[in-house]
Design a protein that fits this description.
mainly alpha, 0% strand
């Protein structure tokens, strides 16, 4: 109902405007959680234009618990979006990823754990947005769209052009190569960015203590375990070749960690990675490396 939608939008605006300058971290966290709940009842445009910008501002908050909650909220809200315009399809490339790039360098363990457990989701959703963007682009420029208008002289010429099978095949071949090339470049850019996030998380920072010999898991190993929770999503996002080149070398370093829980988590998840990369890579590369780490 339109009146219900307007009422919900009014509540969302009140929450965003009243909490923006609040000094109470708990109030900000409650507001973020409320926005997630309201997002489930909102249109995609409301999520993208009203709720998400507020959540992105919360990523810059000084309190770690607020930033960690905002990271998880951003993950949940973007996953709710199913329809978007061609302009909104650039959400990740120009808006979300630059903001998350700063989060990946945060030195607070709480923020890093929240980001590590969300990387797989962000990677998967960014690929879905890219695929839908590509579909919109292709649909807009397909031969069927051109053939609809045969009233003008240009339209008639285009119709005649595509009626010629040889010309149409030659055009479609070059057009497909152009579209696929553009898609591959953008996809590679997303993969490079996610790879940098993982690398940043793996690097030890001054504020992430190691607790060697204490019997407690270090913050760094907890971050790595959080990364392992969605490792299959990351494998699918990177593809088989990039998984072998970028992801597996990082994962194998987990076996050298002193935290037995991290090594156990690695052993529990590596089977899924092996299924993804296939038996040849598993027997030829992974098994040899695993034996060498005994």
């Amino acid at each position: 109902d339109r009146s219900d939608a307007d009422g919900l939008l009014l509540i969302i605006q009140v929450i965003c405007s009243s909490i923006r300058h609040s000094r109470c971290p708990h109030a900000k966290i409650v507001a973020i959680l409320l926005l997630i709940c309201f997002g489930r009842c909102s249109d995609d445009d409301v999520i993208l234009q009203r709720i998400l910008p507020f959540i992105m501002i919360m990523l810059e908050d000084q309190v770690s618990s607020v930033k960690a909650t905002a990271i998880r909220a951003c993950r949940s809200l973007i996953r709710m979006v199913t329809k978007f315009s061609a302009i909104q399809s650039n959400l990740f490339q120009f808006y979300v990823f630059p903001a998350l790039g700063e989060i990946s360098k945060d030195t607070d363990a709480m923020v890093r754990v929240a980001f590590a457990e969300s990387i797989g989701h962000f990677a998967e959703i960014s690929k879905e947005f890219l695929d839908k963007q590509q579909m919109l682009h292709v649909k807009k420029l397909t031969r069927e769209e051109i053939n609809k208008d045969t009233s003008s002289v240009l339209g008639q010429e285009l119709y005649s052009f595509f009626s010629n099978k040889n010309e149409a095949d030659r055009y479609n071949g070059s057009y497909t190569m152009f579209v696929e090339s553009s898609y591959d470049v953008r996809y590679k850019s997303l993969q490079d960015q996610v790879s940098r996030w993982i690398r940043d998380l793996m690097l030890a920072s001054g504020n992430v203590d190691s607790r060697k010999g204490s019997g407690l898991a270090s913050h760094n190993s907890i971050i790595k375990r959080a990364l392992l929770t969605d490792i299959v999503r990351l494998c699918v996002f990177f593809g088989q070749e990039s998984t072998m080149d970028l992801l597996i070398p990082q994962l194998l370093t987990f076996l050298n960690d002193q935290d037995w829980e991290l090594r156990y988590a690695f052993c529990a998840k590596i089977t899924s990675v092996c299924l993804f990369v296939g038996p040849i890579v598993t027997s030829g590369l992974l098994m040899q490396l695993l034996r060498g780490s005994d």
